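Case study.
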Amino acid sequence: MFILVNLKAYPCDPIEVATAARDVAEESGVRIAVSPQAAQIESVADTGVETWAQHVSPNGHGSFTGSTLAEAVADAGAEGTLLNHSENRLKLADIDTAVKAAERAGLETCVCANNPDQIGAAAALKPDSVAVEPPELIGGDVSVATADPDIVTDAVDAAGAVDESVDVYCGAGISTGDDVVTAQDLGATGILLASGVAKADDPRAALEDLVAGL
Amino acid sequence: MFILVNLKAYPCDPIEVATAARDVAEESGVRIAVSPQAAQIESVADTGVETWAQHVSPNGHGSFTGSTLAEAVADAGAEGTLLNHSENRLKLADIDTAVKAAERAGLETCVCANNPDQIGAAAALKPDSVAVEPPELIGGDVSVATADPDIVTDAVDAAGAVDESVDVYCGAGISTGDDVVTAQDLGATGILLASGVAKADDPRAALEDLVAGL
Amino acid sequence: MFILVNLKAYPCDPIEVATAARDVAEESGVRIAVSPQAAQIESVADTGVETWAQHVSPNGHGSFTGSTLAEAVADAGAEGTLLNHSENRLKLADIDTAVKAAERAGLETCVCANNPDQIGAAAALKPDSVAVEPPELIGGDVSVATADPDIVTDAVDAAGAVDESVDVYCGAGISTGDDVVTAQDLGATGILLASGVAKADDPRAALEDLVAGL
Amino acid sequence: MFILVNLKAYPCDPIEVATAARDVAEESGVRIAVSPQAAQIESVADTGVETWAQHVSPNGHGSFTGSTLAEAVADAGAEGTLLNHSENRLKLADIDTAVKAAERAGLETCVCANNPDQIGAAAALKPDSVAVEPPELIGGDVSVATADPDIVTDAVDAAGAVDESVDVYCGAGISTGDDVVTAQDLGATGILLASGVAKADDPRAALEDLVAGL
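After joint prediction, the assembly is written out as follows.
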């Protein structure tokens, strides 16, 4: 399982979370990455943790003021990027272009979407992975362990029907180690979570709980 | 073959084009539709021609000022709608929602996209058809008959790999009857064109030429 | 006072509201307009009521599939247009271009904004009017008569400081005739309302109440 | 005069330009800042040059994946931010919110716009400065020294009519020291330029030429 901690624009200390993630990954052998804002990538990557961007723009070098160039986040130390997160929905054509821009810059890609049809569409764009963010689960009131399990398995089926090589992550509804195991049992090979770690009083303890059942 | 004439925001007389399209469709037996702006749907549909919207919004009834409600264009006489035209690119999530909104309103749907990867993604959203608009062909300087034929066949293959029931239209590079035949030979079951008819001195003659080889 | 009834994408009968608005305007001598979706402008205008678009696009004739051309809505019978409604926020550059497009097509313009700073900015773009939509009032739980009266007077002052010729409408918080009088006393020369009429069991009675105190 | 060098997404070495800008600013006494992408702010600011963001998002801390938080770019070392650059046009409401977000984070703000009406609108949002980017001058084929001088003086007048405390920068058409002097004579108190420095073979020499006449 791959655990990706999205720091969003939370008022957390990105270095504290990054250091905890690096240590728990080393101790547990579980792959864990942290996704800070673009302006924090360099200092987060300097901790040694696997670092992901939250977004890259659908353009290469050129006259694109205000864009988040894939090459620039890669130079700053990012190894992957989220795309089309539910808080940052993109045009279909821009997801396609951004996936290709990220690949040119050597970044792993995870395209988010919120139902099996969109997961199939995202998989058709050939990212490394897709993350299903069912609206029922976004916000965290319901865990994937208690929600209708079809939510994840349908996404796994939809992605697999289009391209079997695309991994499917569970993009919402995860806050405990039990949720991680449930997601794994449903066919997800990774999870995205945010507040469960980024807003935790003790991010290290939260991460240790998440990997405990793996 | 299905011929869909997109009037865009051209300074043409929509009723003149609609009347010509209705007559040529009746005389030739070829299915021809006209796609005017939302404000012109009612008067275009009144001619009896098959009428398509150029876009519908990804929402149902409610507080959506300035939207183009699928139910409203259907009530005005539209039978189908384009979505995600290259001049009106939409977010992936909005294409999905708009396809479903159009279906609820009884509208046929055609999602545009500009390369085989995006065509596969569009097909995954289960519209009735997709239209490939290769950037090489948009603008009309190159006809599909002289361009690399892989442009259309790759789109047909990409859509078919995802959902065999989705029709593939050729969304650019068509201005003559020969182009229509070429598109048909490459596997397209319909064509989108705009200026070749809408800006023609004689729209009826242009349409008659388009259907001549069918 | 000018009363503009925004039908949004509500499931109302636009002809019923339009007919009521036409009759109440004639009987009361108060200026009343109805703003339906683009696809309904032609049939609404046919009733004889003053008809406004909910939006026009920042472009002229040309290759703009899915746009709402100012000339097209004017041809369909619109005499004015809203722009930048809170449900349809536009880029600053596009508001500027759309105001100019609307003026070229002979449409009166009302640019919405939600605080005095934005009202000043909107007034700088030289529309005929601006409408202040304070977030506190949107949705209708609070009426302008009970809210902090500074909300409207600050907007009137902000617009006047930039361009005294721009009218200021009250764009939220109105549902009764008392509210209309309050808005007028605060310096507004018009009001925008939606559900209070469009969703009323008896739109004619709702309109008669609105004009009763004028 | 204030000289702001926008690095856009150019394939330049941001540290080389930053170091040159820092040195020329120190030697000449002219205020010079460099505006890199968000992911490069920290390393650019580490050179000691005044550093500006190219954009900040209209939000504070919270669930805003992919946003460019004003506080985050300030923490990384930025002292100011561009907003609404012609390559990154924003909604009016978002410019307003982003100006306020930047001010909360202690960032100086410069809102770009492309004609006197929009400059007046931008000034109404109370940024520290506005930059006029006349379409005639964007791209650099025409210098402000040879273009119609009304382009800049009209912008200065438009901003002054709304808020005299807002500085006006010349946002296009500058590549030489003579252009800088011309812009100053027309009432601009700063200039934005990009390729003239960022793509120069010798950025230091380009900057020395720009300040030579001051």
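Observations recorded in class. The domain at 2-211 of chain A is CATH 3.20.20.70 (TIM Barrel). Chain A has one domain: 2-211. We will return to this complex in the next lecture.
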